[in-house]
Amino acid sequence: MNQENTTVVATLYKFVRLPDYCELQAPLLSFCQEQSIKGTILLATEGINGTIAGSRTAIDQVLAFLRHDSRLVDLEHKESYTHIPPFRRMKVRLKREIVTLGIPEVDPNQRVGKYVSPQEWNALLLDPNVTVVDTRNDYEVSIGTFKRARNPHTHIFREFPDYVSKNLHPDKNQKIALFCTGGIRCEKASSYLLSQGFQEVYHLKGGILKYLEEVTGEESLWEGECFVFDDRGVVNPQGTMEEC
Hints:
Elements: E1 7-15, H1 21-34, E2 38-44, E3 47-54, H2 56-67, E4 77-82, E5 90-94, E6 114-116, H3 118-125, E7 131-134, H4 138-141, E8 144-146, H5 160-167, E9 175-179, H6 184-195, E10 200-204, H7 207-214, E11 222-224, E12 226-227, E13 234-235
Parallel strand pairs: 2-5, 6-10, 7-9, 9-10
Antiparallel strand pairs: 1-3, 1-4, 2-3, 8-11, 12-13
InterPro entries: Rhodanese-like_dom, Rhodanese-like_dom_sf, TrhO, TRHO_N
Keywords: Oxidoreductase, Transferase, tRNA processing
Organism: Cylindrospermopsis curvispora GIHE-G1
C-alpha cells in the first residue's frame, strides 16, 4: 500500500507491573487527543494493551510518550495501514485485566511459555508431536487460522480454561504451541497452561499479525484472513495488510 495519506494502525501490549495505572489514564488520554489519535488503550495493574490509529507523526509521538516511562521503554508494537480511519474516538480505559481470563493468580509477569519467532513458527506447525491451539474465539477462527490448528470453539477468552480441562492433559499433550491475533491472549494462555502442569508450552511472538508481516508467499501456512477489532473487520495475509 502507498503509505502517503494513509492512517497508521498500531497495536501494542506489554505485561508489566503498573500499580499506578489509574494515575496514567488522564495524561495518556490528553496526549493522544492532542495528537488527534483515535482508538482504545487498556490499563491495568498487569500492564497495557491497545490499538490506536493516526498519522505517522502522531503514532510516533504517542509511542515515544509511552516509552518515556522506564517500565515501557521496550514496548513493542505492530503496524498496518488503511485508507479508512478505523476508529471514531479515543478511549483510555481502566481494567482489572488487559485481557480477561478471570483467574487473577495467572500472572504473565511471573511466568510465560517460550516465545517463538514468526520465522521459527512453521517448524512447530509441521511437527506432529506438537499440539497447536488457536486461543482466539470461534468467530475469529472461522475467518482464518493456521493449518492443523485446533479450534477451542470458545465465545470469550474466559472459556479457555474449561476447554483446557476437557481437551488437554499434560501427559498426552507434552508440547503445546499457542497463537492469537497480536500475542497477548496466547501469552496469558501459556501462563495458565504452565500453572496447570504443562511443561513445554510455546507461543507465537507478535501473534498472527507479526507472522503475516514477516512470513509471506508460499512459505506462509496461514489460511484465510485475520479478524481485527476495529472498523476494518479483517486484514488480508499480505505484508502491508491492507483493509479488505
